[in-house]
Design goal:
With about 140 residues, the protein is mainly alpha-helical. Strand 1 and strand 2 form a beta hairpin.
Length: about 140
């Protein structure tokens, strides 16, 4: 499996190869559109990311020690970024997920506001990290030694 940094580098290269900001947004929107539909039951208040202006749901679940992320948003931009997060999360452990940052977003050159100043991105990352920690803690506490 590729490292998180290797996947981020692939994202950056893909976006750098696009000829314009419009082409970058078109690609980002397509990534969001390609996501599988999120189950209605997964669109719960517990999975709603607080602090985002748009509605964004993250449903993180574990399967045999590997995590998977389902997501949806009413914003095409946020849904596209969430699609990138899905690719970063798939097959990772909780420890790896808590190491994910969104620093690579700045290198995609899709907007001028640095990611560290974007409250929605910070909320997205905090929510993801929190879910990974909760699931990891629950899994560790349910194991019998």
């Amino acid at each position: 499996m590729k490292t998180i940094k290797e996947v981020e580098k692939e994202f950056i290269e893909a976006f750098q190869n696009l000829p314009s900001v419009d082409a970058k947004y078109t690609y980002l929107f397509q990534l969001g559109n390609d996501l599988p539909d999120m189950l209605p039951a997964e669109k719960s208040n517990a999975n709603l990311v607080k602090g985002c202006q748009s509605k964004l749901w993250f449903y993180l679940h574990e399967d045999a020690g590997q995590f998977k992320l389902s997501t949806d948003s009413n914003s095409m931009v946020i849904k596209g970024i969430a699609a990138l997060m899905v690719q970063l999360v798939q097959g990772r452990t909780a420890d790896e997920i808590t190491q994910i940052t969104l620093d690579f977003i700045d290198d995609l050159n899709i907007w001028k506001l640095p990611s560290v100043r974007n409250n929605g991105l910070i909320a997205m990352l905090d929510h993801l990290h929190q879910q990974a920690r909760v699931i990891s803690d629950t899994s560790e506490n349910s194991r019998c030694d």
